Amino acid sequence: MQSNISKELEMKFPPIVMLKSDEKPENATGPKNERAGCVMSFVAQTIAKRKTTFFGREHISCGGISVGFGWGSGLPDEDAVDFQASFLSLGVDSAPDREMYEQRLSHMPKPTQEMFRHGERIYADFETAKACIQSRPVYDEGQYVIFKGIENLEDGEIPESVIFTVNPIELTAMIQINSSFRLEDNYILTPQASSCQAIGCFVFKENESDNPKPVLGPIDFAGRAKMKHFIPNDYMTLSMPWKLFLKLEELSENSVLQTDFLKKFKE
After folding, report:
1. Beta carbons of 15 and 111 less than 8 angstroms apart
2. What's the pLDDT at 4?
3. Residue 33: which pLDDT band, with cuts at 50, 70 and 90?
4. DSSP at 118
5. Got the DSSP string for 124-160?
6. Least crowded by CB within 10 Å, which of 127, 166, 191, 202?
7. How confident is the model at residue 63 (pLDDT cuts 50, 70, 90)?
8. Does residue 122 have a pLDDT over 90?
9. 192/169 Cα distance (integer angstroms)
10. Which 3 state secondary structure label does DSSP give 16?
11. What is the Cα Rg of the chain in Å?
12. pTM for the full model?
C-alpha cells in the first residue's frame, strides 16, 4: 500500500505501521538479548531504512514501554509508581522517601545512577508525575509489536497505529487536513508521554473514540536520543489509528495538498 499524503508531499519518510502479534515475526530485525534498551532505535530503523523490526514483552527494559505497547502498567505496586514518578520529575529531590530512592540507585550503573538522581524532569513535581502515570491508558494483550513500512503491509493486516515522520511543512499540511472536517478546538493531542506511548497506548485509546485525533511526538528527549542517528532533529512523529489514517487519506485527494499555497514550498 502507498499513502497519497506521503506521495503528494514527497515525504522523505513514508509512514510506517505498528501491528500486534502473539508470534515472533520471521525475517524481521529485533533485539538479540532479553533486555534490549529503548525500542525507539528499532522504530527509527523502520522509518529510515524501511526494515521490518519487532519488540516483545521479554525485551521490556524501562517503566514506560509496558504501558506504551499495551503490555500492562509495568508498575506492580505503589513503591514502583512512586519510584517512576520521582524519576520523571526531579529525581531524588522529588522522592517521598529519599533514602529508599537512593538505595535503589545504588544498584544501578554509575551513568544510570546520575540520570535517575537528577530525574528526567518532564513533570514539575512528584504529585503531578504520579497523577499522570496513574491516568495513562492501560491495555494488556499481544506478545509482540511489529513495525514495517506501509508499502510492506499485507492484505488483511490492520495496523494498531500508523506513524508519519514529518518535517515542519509536512506537519503543517497534515494538521490542515486533519482540521478540515472538525468543529471543536482541540484537533491534535500532545500528551506528556514517552515516545513509545505516543505511538502506542495513546493511539490505542483514540481508536476507541468515534472522533479520533492524531498524537504528536516524540516530546521526550530520552526517546529522541535513540532516534537521532537515523532521523534528523527537525522531524516529529504524528501517529493515528488506522480508521483516522484512511479518513485523512480520502480527504487528502481534494485538499490543501493540491493548492498553489503548498506548491510554493516545494520549489
Report:
1. no
2. 97
3. confident
4. H
5. SSHHHHHHHHHTS---B--SEEEEEEGGGPPTT---S
6. 127
7. confident
8. yes
9. 23
10. strand
11. 19
12. 0.94
Sign of CA dihedral 38, 201, 21, 249: negative
For 22, the grid coordinates are: 502473539
Cα→Cα distances 132→77, 125, 182, Å: 16, 11, 27
Q: How far apart are CA 187 and CA 212, in angstroms?
A: 9
Nine-digit cell string for 146: 511489529
**Helix runs in the chain, H state only:** 4-9, 40-49, 65-68, 78-88, 98-105, 110-118, 126-134, 168-179, 195-199, 201-207, 221-227, 242-252, 260-263
Tally of residues, the chain: 267
Residue 216 scores a pLDDT above 90: yes
Which tens digit of pLDDT belongs to each residue from 154-173? 999 999 999 999 999 999 99
**Cα separation, 144 vs 24, whole angstroms:** 7
- What per-residue string of b and e applies to 74-86 under the rule 16 or more CB within 10 Å gives b? bbeeeeebbbbbb
